[in-house]
UniProtKB/TrEMBL annotation, chain A:
Molecular function via GO: DNA binding; DNA clamp loader activity
Organism: Electrophorus electricus (Electric eel)
Lineage: Eukaryota, Metazoa, Chordata, Craniata, Vertebrata
GO cellular component terms attached to this protein's record: DNA replication factor C complex; nucleus
Protein name in UniProt: Replication factor C subunit 3
CDD domains per the UniProt record, alphabetical: AAA
Automatic annotation (TrEMBL), chain B:
Biased composition (Low complexity): 8-18, 335-361
Ranges of Basic residues composition bias in the record: 1134-1144
Annotated keywords: ATP-binding, DNA replication, DNA-binding, Nucleotide-binding, Nucleus, Phosphoprotein
Native source organism of the sequence: Electrophorus electricus (Electric eel)
Name of the featured protein: Replication factor C subunit 1
């Protein structure tokens, strides 16, 4: 008994529900027996990993689904031992070098290179190359990405890399140029709805289209989240009703409350409260980008036209600096403080105008 | 952000160069006027005040000359009584003040305070409206009053005034003032000229009065002093002393008169000039400015004409005439009296009015606020700094005139900062404390003063002064000789007489029994000497008590060791003394001279007793010496064979040890950090010299008394480190265990890791820093011996600057006085500031100092401010970030909008600091640290500077960050465990899966209770989640302190769940323990190349079987030996955590 999202995960390119053109192209690509390095990118919940696994299955057959978790340890030149978990089948290896933190370069240099260098013994029965799947490439440090450059070229014969990330903006250009970029966009609302309805049908449930649409919108077209929401709805209430409220994740609720707190009052005391709330979010490992994004979406609803542009610009500014800096809370707080100052000024000026 | 902005407050001098240029030479001539006072508010009557200052300097010199003579005469006549009389000075002072109180009711604290307050208040306001014209009508009256009334006052003292309510008084005054305003408004411009003339006339007449009063007072005062009982015996002798003094005063006064008239002339001249020079008198202010300019010129002239002969002291008058007026003028007249006072203030206040134009509005409000306590607190929070900085001349009082007086400052003094006021009082020997107590002599009241302090002062009957009265007090109070100086003199005399009495005998030799031999020539000489001595008295030394005289010590010491150094040459040859450092020159020669070690329970005495009884306690073998001293009834260290002296440097540990040894006639071998003290060398050197046959021979032999008189002094044991002294401490401990002689160890930090083991074997003696007074006394006597003139308050500064390090004080003294034998307070303070040891500030203090406004931060330069950051550059930004929200910035002025803007700016600056920090840490560009200091500490401080409502809180970032890291590790582990199923990244697991997975896991338990357990366990198995993961899911998905839903479950359900989970073994695709990894990898290797999928599957199953076996086995063992297993698991986990931390 798994969750629906995993239970009904498509396993072959033919079974994919949306972006079928792309699926066809990928199949064509694979069927000719060889394919270049891939850089699959797209927002979270769009189905990147699912698609990659489908490609691998197309390539190697069902054996690719026999996965195992391996615990590898790599020794850095400084004699430091780095432990890293990998997921591997007989044909491929999935690594998230970002797990190693700052020593991800060593993982790339040692682990990937070792795998890439090793030749397949029986090239007759199977493909002569293995696939190394690197996830969250955008979290890699620049050093690690540079370490990847040469490996990608040199061991092309024995190893293909599939890079998976959310955004290519943090992948250095040399790597982007070495890969075939495949963007997996989010499914449209209709596609999400059809997937949801399909899953519910398989489960023997009847999903009202209104609810499906609502879920799709609420999930932000993130199919993974939509399915999880749908299942939560099922647990909450069955048979479904069209206007039942969809259970949200705690952090979303918390983030919204925080934004409301900012709007409702602008004072140093409130800033202090917001700080504790932000800390709470951060300690729950909610990425700061998502926090700032969530705040802005909520805050913008309370702003007028002129202020909207300003706030959006501000948010972009602070988000950028947040990436440059090391302590996220500083920048989040600075954003909140700035917003409070601007908003307070705006409100008071508005009040003055109203008075006269 | 313009950084230059922040330089501005620190250097207000820049914009006014003309003032500075005209007065610089004079400033140099007279020492130190506050630069701030000089610049921020130019004073029109500066000239006269300065003149007066000079006068005082002159007269002081004369007086000093006389005083110097006087004591000499006294000494000649009666040598011994002199110190007594002077020591009792402080007592007599109190008597004197009380006498004064009764004789001069006008000066009585309370009444004066109330009236004065009102007056000054009014005077200020009046003067503000029209500095010159307003006072015009009242001036004549005021001066008349002054003239007519002073004689009567002098003749017959008036009864005391009961304190009247301030508020009442204010009420009337406000009305009065508004009237006056009208008058002032109606008064025409042309009055201005006549006013000025009148002003000067009146000032002249006032001067006369003041002078007379002053003289009267002086005489009275002197009489009172000498009528004291203490002086009864010496009266006859002392009678001579005041006479010349009086005569001097008399002789001076005509001189003064003449000079005054001359000055009046010049003034008149200037006056007549001034109209011409300033044809347009558009406003009184302009006239004022003009006049100031004139005076400036005049002053120059005066300076050239009669340097130092200027006598007029218009500054002196405000207090005396007005007080006399106050004493007599009826209540209705008071307003006028106040107005007349405004004359005296009008000129300085004109300067202040420029700096703070808001004053007239706020001051009446303030008085109202005082009524309500909360309002008072509010006003305290928002209270501004001094409004008229430097508007009043700081008087030059007589030396030590405030000695014995204890001051408490409250409220904001208008013309000077709290710090300055404090240093002013301290300069004249006064003491400033924080709270009013019975001992407090004066309470100095400023604006917005604390009500509780005032009340307390009333209840204790403490005199209450305002700012002007304080200045007057300094101006008028007679100086006296510092008791320290006197003590020093007395001591010096005593020692002299002693040395005369027993020449040669009184100088105990400084023995250094070092392995390094002395110079051969001297050695032979001394050897001869010692032999002679030893032969002369072999028996007596044995019989003599241990606490013998120095010569006795010397003898026995010489006995103990065949070769000794010659006696320290200090006193023997005067030529040598010059070359010696003062520290050595004035090294205490006996235990009695040790600073701060005089008490019965002092370390020196404890050490003495311990050493005295050492042989008694340790006569037998070690079996009789258990170490129970620590917990035993008597804490005399009798159980210990060694003593450990610990304490900060420069308090006299080594000296104490050496002196104690000398006192008891022990010879000592000193090992300090300059000699290698490794295990082997210790063994060789010490064991040989102390513990081997030579001593044993003595022990068994006849000369038993000498044999055991050895001490090993291990100095600087905390320096026994590094490769050189490896194993030194262990060897030392071993040595202590089997030693037959006492060992004295010394170290600075008793809690040091290396010392701790040693401390267990030692009698623990902790040296504290001596109190300032203790050091001061000794230093004064040394200064006297060296012929230095250091004012005691100056010495205070020096001692405090060195953090009560006697050695440092001596060095500093000797350095600073190398060129000049006289040291002034200001010079000393400046020097002391330079020599101030860099005190390490804690991050809390740093944070407070970054944000708080006020005296201590007002004068900080940019460098000082950024230095704050460098106290701890890793913590300081965190503290600043944590606490900036708690600060109420002064710049916001209570406006919430501005406050928020400031907060935002500060936050931006802190962000910039973070960016710089990232650059520093990631690229190791540590040269950027100063930049970070500006962004992360200085700029926030500047923006937010204000009042900090609470104690700085510790940065929560540290805790939150580690919590984040921990959760991140947990999520990563979860993600990797669930990886096979979810195929998604850590963030996705955290954001999307966990909330729903938790509910999916818990819903069966919640809805079905125990029946739901199987469903939950199934789900867990599907996602490869083990029980630990389940717990961490619960932990990580609890928000904002809400109780997690799992804990709300029925305990039965929980137990059922746990049982259901434990019932079956769970197969995980990952290894729980590291050990299994190896096996797994080998099986992987085997199954690396399967023929077909089926085979692979089989192998997989086989493998899983294997792991399942392993798991089962583990389960079984777990059942039997649970605690041990858990421990292993824990340790494994801890390791994992540690690694995770390293990675992050």
């Amino acid at each position: 008994m798994s969750l629906w999202v995993d239970k009904y995960r498509p396993t072959s390119l033919a079974k994919l529900d949306y972006h079928k053109d792309q699926a066809n192209q990928l199949r064509n690509l694979v069927q000719c027996g060889d394919f270049p390095h891939l850089l699959v990118y797209g927002p979270s919940g769009a189905g990147k990993k699912t698609r990659i696994m489908c490609v691998l299955r197309e390539l190697y057959g069902a054996g690719v689904e026999k996965l195992r978790i391996e615990h590898q340890s790599v020794t850095a030149p400084s004699k430091k031992k780095i432990e890293i978990n990998t997921i591997a089948s007989n044909y491929h290896l999935e690594v998230n070098p970002g797990d190693a933190g700052n020593s991800d370069r060593v993982v790339i240099q040692e682990l990937i290179k070792t795998v890439a260098q090793s030749q397949q013994i029986q090239s007759s029965t199977q493909r002569e190359f293995k696939v190394v799947l690197l996830t969250e490439v955008d979290r890699l440090t620049k050093d690690a990405q540079h370490a990847l450059r040469r490996t990608m070229e040199k061991y092309m014969a024995t190893c293909r890399l599939v890079l998976c990330c959310n955004s290519t903006s943090k992948v250095i250009a040399p790597i982007r140029s070495r890969c075939l970029a495949v963007r997996v966009p989010l499914p449209s609302v209709e596609e999400v709805c059809s997937v949801l309805t399909g899953v519910c049908r398989k489960e023997g449930l009847l999903l009202p289209p209104e609810l499906a649409k609502q879920i799709a919108e609420k999930s932000g077209r993130n199919l993974r989240r939509a399915l999880l929401m749908c299942e939560a709805c099922r647990v909450q209430q069955y048979p479904f009703s069209a206007d039942q409220d969809i259970p949200e994740t705690d952090w979303e609720v918390y983030l919204r409350e925080t934004a409301n707190a900012i709007v409702s009052q602008q004072s140093p005391q409130r800033l202090m409260e917001v700080r504790t709330r932000l800390y709470e979010l951060l300690t729950h490992c909610i990425p700061p980008e998502i926090i700032i994004k969530g705040l802005v979406t909520e805050l913008l609803g309370n702003c007028d036209g002129h202020l909207k542009a300003e706030v959006a610009q501000m948010a972009a500014y602070y988000e950028h600096r947040l990436q440059l800096g090391s302590k996220a809370i500083y920048h989040l707080e600075a954003f909140v403080a700035k917003f409070m100052a601007i908003y307070k000024k705006f409100m008071e000026d508005g009040l003055d105008n109203f008075m006269f | 952000q313009d950084i230059r902005r922040f330089f501005a407050p620190t250097k207000p001098a820049a914009p006014k160069p003309t003032q500075g240029s005209t007065s610089t030479d004079q400033d140099h001539a007279r020492n130190k006027k506050k630069p701030s006072s000089k610049i921020t508010s130019p004073k029109s009557d500066k000239r006269s005040v300065k003149r007066k200052k000079r006068l005082i300097v002159d007269s002081e010199e004369k007086k000093e000359g006389k005083q110097k003579k006087d004591p000499k005469e006294k000494n000649a006549s009666s040598g011994k009584k002199n110190p007594v009389t002077y020591v009792s000075d402080s007592d007599s002072d109190e008597v004197f003040t009380s006498l004064k109180k009764s004789s001069k009711p006008g000066k009585n604290g309370c009444s004066q305070m109330t009236s004065h307050l009102g007056k000054s208040e009014e005077a200020q306001t009046a003067s503000l409206k029209s500095p010159v014209t307003s006072s015009a009508p009242s001036l004549k009256r005021g001066t008349k009053n002054g003239v007519s009334l002073t004689p009567t006052k002098a003749a017959a003292p008036q009864p005391r005034y009961t304190p009247t309510s301030v508020v009442d008084y204010f009420g009337s005054s406000v009305i009065q003032r508004s009237d006056k305003k009208l008058v002032a408004a109606t008064s025409t411009k042309r009055k201005a000229v006549s006013n000025e003339i009148q002003d000067h006339e009146s000032s002249c007449s006032d001067e006369l009065i003041a002078k007379q009063l002053q003289m009267d007072e002086d005489i009275e005062l002197e009489k009172q002093i000498h009528e004291d009982e203490e002086f009864a015996k010496t009266l006859a002798m002392l009678d001579e002393a005041p006479l010349p003094k009086k005569a001097r005063v008399d002789t001076i006064s005509p001189l003064k008169d003449s000079s005054r008239t001359s000055s009046a002339d010049t003034k008149a001249k200037a006056k007549s000039d001034s109209p011409k020079q300033s044809p347009v008198r558009a406003s009184s202010k302009l006239a004022l400015l003009k006049r100031r300019a004139d005076k400036e010129e005049e002053r120059k002239k005066n300076k050239q004409e009669k340097k130092g002969k200027m006598v007029v002291s218009p500054k002196k008058e405000p207090a005396t005439p007005t007080t006399s007026e106050m004493a007599v003028t009826p209540k209705t007249d008071r307003a006028f009296a106040a107005a007349s006072k405004s004359r005296s203030f009008s000129t300085p206040k004109s300067g202040s009015s420029k700096t703070s134009p808001t004053k007239p509005e706020t001051s009446p409000e303030d008085s109202e606020k005082k009524r309500v306590n909360s309002a008072a607190y509010r006003s305290y929070l928002n209270r501004e700094g001094p409004r008229a900085l430097g508007s009043k001349e700081i008087p030059q009082g007589e030396e030590n005139c405030l000695e014995g007086c204890v001051f408490v400052l409250t409220g904001v003094l208008e013309s000077m900062e709290r710090e300055d006021a404090k240093s002013l009082i301290e300069r004249y020997g006064g003491k400033v404390t924080g709270n009013v107590s019975r001992k407090t002599t004066y309470l100095v009241l400023g604006r917005d003063s604390g009500a509780s302090k005032t009340e307390k002062a009333h209840s204790f009957g403490t005199k209450i002064l305002n700012e002007d009265e304080l200045l007057d007090l300094i101006r008028t109070k007679p100086g006296k000789k510092s008791k320290y100086e006197i003590a020093a003199e007395a001591e010096n005399k005593r020692t002299k007489s002693q040395t005369l009495g027993s020449k040669g005998k009184a100088t105990p030799p400084r023995l250094k029994h070092t392995p390094l031999g002395p110079s051969p020539a001297k050695k032979s000489l001394s050897a001869g000497k010692t032999r002679a001595v030893s032969t002369s008295s072999p028996g007596t030394s044995r019989a003599s008590p241990r606490r013998g005289t120095a010569s006795d010590v010397k003898k026995s010491l010489k006995f103990g060791c065949g070769k000794t150094l010659p006696p320290a040459p200090h006193h023997a040859t005067d030529g040598d003394t010059c070359s010696l450092l003062w520290v050595d020159k004035y090294r205490p020669r006996s235990l009695k001279n040790l600073i701060g070690q005089q008490g019965e329970q002092s370390c020196a005495n404890k050490l003495l007793r311990w050493l005295q009884h050492w042989h008694k306690h340790h006569r037998g073998d070690t079996k009789t010496a258990p170490r129970f001293g620590k917990f035993g009834g008597k804490n005399d260290g009798s159980g210990f064979k060694a003593a450990l002296l610990s304490g900060p440097p420069g308090v006299g540990k080594t000296t104490t040890a050496a002196l104690v040894c000398e006192e008891l006639g022990y010879s000592y071998v000193e090992m300090n950090a300059s000699s290698t003290r490794s295990r082997t060398s210790l063994k060789e050197v010490i064991a040989e010299s102390l513990n081997n046959t030579s001593i044993k021979n003595f022990y068994s032999g006849t000369s038993q008394t000498v044999s055991d008189k050895h001490v090993l002094i291990m100095d600087e044991v905390d320096g026994m480190a590094g490769n050189e002294d490896r194993g030194g401490i262990q060897e030392l401990i071993g040595l202590i265990k089997q030693s037959k002689i006492p060992i004295i160890c010394m170290c600075n930090d008793r809690n040091h890791q290396k010392i701790r083991s040693l401390a267990n074997y030692c009698f623990d003696l902790r040296f504290q820093r001596p109190r300032v007074e203790q050091i001061k006394g000794a230093m004064m006597s040394i200064a006297f011996k060296e012929g230095l003139k250091v004012p005691p308050p100056a010495l205070n500064e020096i001692i405090l600057a060195t953090n009560q390090d006697i050695r440092q004080v001596l060095h500093n003294l000797s350095m600073w006085t190398a060129t000049d034998k006289v040291m002034t307070y200001d010079q000393a303070k400046a020097d002391a500031k330079n020599a101030r040891k860099d005190m390490k500030m804690g991050p809390f203090d740093v944070c407070r100092k970054v944000f708080t406004s006020g005296e201590e931060t007002a004068h900080m330069s940019l460098i000082d401010k950024s230095d704050l950051f460098f106290h701890d550059y890793s913590l300081a930004p965190l503290f600043v970030q944590e606490n900036y929200i708690h600060v109420r910035p002064a710049a916001a002025g209570g406006n919430l909008k501005n406050y928020l803007v400031l907060l935002s700016k500060t936050a931006d600056s802190i962000c910039d600091g973070d960016l710089v920090d990232k650059q520093i840490r990631s690229k190791q560009t540590w040269s950027l640290l100063p930049t970070q200091a500006i962004y992360a500490s200085v700029l926030p401080g500047e923006l937010m500077r204000g009042y900090m409502g609470q104690f700085p809180t510790f940065p929560s970032w540290l805790g939150k960050n580690s919590a984040t890291n921990k959760h991140s590790r947990i999520v990563q582990e979860l993600a990797s465990h669930m990886g096979l199923k979810t195929l998604c990244s850590k963030d996705a697991v955290n954001l999307d899966y966990l909330p729903y997975l938790r509910s999916a896991l818990l819903v069966p338990l919640q809805s079905h209770g125990a029946e739901g357990t199987s469903q939950t366990v199934k789900l867990m198995d599907d996602y490869d989640i083990i029980k630990e993961d389940f717990d961490s899911i619960i932990e990580i998905s609890s928000w904002g302190g809400q109780p997690d839903p799992y804990s709300r479950l029925d305990s039965k359900v929980k137990a059922a769940f746990t049982r259901a989970y434990n019932r079956e073994s769970h197969l995980t695709p990952y290894s729980i323990q590291m050990v299994k990894k190896g096996r797994r990898s080998t099986t992987d290797f085997e199954s690396l190349d399967p023929e077909n999928d089926l085979q692979g599957q089989e192998e997989e199953e086989e493998e899983e079987g294997l792991t399942a076996d392993a798991m089962i086995r583990r389960k079984k063992t777990k059942l039997t030996k649970e605690p041990k297993q858990e421990k292993a698991g824990d340790s494994g986990k801890g390791k994992g955590k540690g690694k995770g931390k390293g990675k992050k």
